[in-house]
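Budget justification, computational time. The allocation requested in the original proposal was used primarily to generate structure tokens for proteins on the priority list. As evidence of use, we reproduce two of the resulting records. The first is shown immediately below.
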Amino acid sequence: MRELVLSCSEDRAEALSDILLDLGVLSVSVEDADSGTEHETPLFGEPGGEPDVQAWHHNRVVALLPDDVQADVLLHALEQHSGQDYSGLATVREVADTDWVRLTQSQFAPICITDQIWIVPSWHRENPQVPSVGADGDNDPILIELDPGLAFGTGSHPTTHLCAQWLAANLQPGQTVLDYGCGSGILAIIAARLGAGEVTGVDIDEQAVQSTDYNAQNNGVQVTACLPDGLQAGAFDIVVANILSNPLKVLAPMLCGRVSPGGRLILSGVLERQAQEVAAAYAPWIEMSVWRSHEGWVCLSGTREQA
């Protein structure tokens, strides 16, 4: 395969990418042309969000070409659509054949959440590093099979670890659980495997709802997954929301209202420097405090007062 590499300024990068996609290239990426030099400029946004600036001062726009598209033909079409001749700013480079499935799988190893809980991609079922099930009876590890997919949540992020560790340490058999912002369903599945009663997962993304349904069935547990509009009235013994600080602050009244009297609220997706601000948003209903921190992230927990 071949890539067409074009040099362009910050103000042209996004429009050029859109035109190339319209012209039928397989994919487009934008790289910092100054990468590796003293002029390299990082782009930052809030974790999980988008940076304010979508390109660098000097950019390489890299378009992956279909086998039947010639670079000179594409450059001519690009000039017709953009009004600019890029032929002097373009190079073509070969892309080595790669087993993308094997490469992707190599990036996801079994994850030990606690001594009891492991997240195991399907291709690691026979991995000797993963403890076996069936030897220790009640002390058997909980192995959750979860493959990376379109929905957020592979178990590798510190906030997922924190929420899962809280569930392992505190969830009592039969308690009802709401996983708000369920993503792949990983926390809902962990709760179910730990012996929770009714478990519900909610996400604003239809793909996440489908992913949670699939992963729950694949792990042999019952989780009711839905969009926010599909969430039935009622409260839960445990409500866990692993999202980000800004939506957590907006959702404070609703999430607190979903916690049963005497129930527990667990929040993560919060940086250490954001903990006090998030806790203040929940203070009118539930007093939240830091339960544990990990790699700059925190897990907040609180108990709703009895009526």
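The second record produced under the same allocation is shown here.
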Amino acid sequence: MTASQKIIIYDQGDLKNAARLFWVLELYGIKNIAILNGGMDAWPEQYPLTKTHTTPQPSQYFPVLNSSVYASTTVAKVAAYSDLYQLYDSRTLDEFMGKRSATEKFGHIPKAKSIQNSTFFNTTTAGVKLLKSPKQLDIIFATLDKSRKSVTYCNKGKASTLTYFLMKQAGFKVSHYDGSWLEWSEKGLPIEK
């Protein structure tokens, strides 16, 4: 692999794993990355699959940390109280509203706004989830404040990487709080319901 080679990432189709890998690769300085819309669920509808085994070749790539895509707990705390930032919670609406929780704490980080991953998808007649068109996504993102720095989070730092990926594609200055709700609530930091 070289820094100029295009990397195409895919998963089964909900794009959470692909988006997580996208964020990790960006964190380590790789820039030429794309995600295959629909993943493995959509590919066989138009193209053949193969069972050929490929062996990755060693690379001379030297990772350089891109800290601008990473939001620490300190950054998340600042975002909760600064008008320069906006937090986006990608958990379920019940979790955001404090009706359910993956931890012993219920609610969300102060000032966070809920943004559900399900709003990003259309489902085909064959039941395959595909990302909405760029025009449809623009309508969703037009309601968000692009002038502020954005920070995404969820429960474990996986689902919100899809929000991160799509916001980045839409031109937002965005970073991802990898510790997410598990870290925030474990540290006993303030919450809202």
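A brief technical remark on that second record: The chain has a mean pLDDT of 94.
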